[in-house]
Amino acid sequence: MTRPIVNIDEIELESRPAAFSPTGDAVNRYEARAGRVGTRIGAKQLGYNVTAVSPGKRAFPVHNHRVNEEMFYVLQGTGEIRIGSSTYSLRPGDIVACPAGGVETAHQIINTGSEELRFLAVSTKHSPEICEYPDSGKFGVYAEFPAAADGKPKMFRHVGREAQSIDYWEGE
Hints:
Layout: E1 14-15, E2 33-36, H1 38-41, E3 46-53, E4 64-65, E5 70-76, E6 79-83, E7 86-90, E8 95-98, E9 107-110, E10 117-124, E11 129-133, E12 138-145, E13 154-160
Antiparallel strand pairs: 1-2, 2-3, 3-10, 4-11, 5-8, 5-10, 6-7, 6-9, 11-12, 12-13
């Protein structure tokens, strides 16, 4: 059995894989390192990670989840979280709930401080997931499948805009 406990000091933070790194103008706004916790301690229905965001940066675009709920616990640093049309200050010890829902639950954490902002992110792991990105008009469909023979999880990911969809019967 996987050891069901890990100390936060043992979590190694890594940069995003190249395929998920910001490009274009986004390079100037987004930067995050993360360390997976959930799979390491044997979690099945919740995902856990520690995320670190540099001063002046954001981890992800503003987004809402239609399926999964998230919770953030601020470990160090200061910042803001935008939820819907409201913005709230963040400091160590703050706990934030981001339930599944529409644009009113769209959220984004921004490091507005002078030191690295670190937080523990916990979420349900229902798959497939649908995310919406209200600032850019995009949506994403994400699904995780059981690991392949090499032990790596298999993923399906599609990001698009509703206006760019094709007819169900096209090409049939």
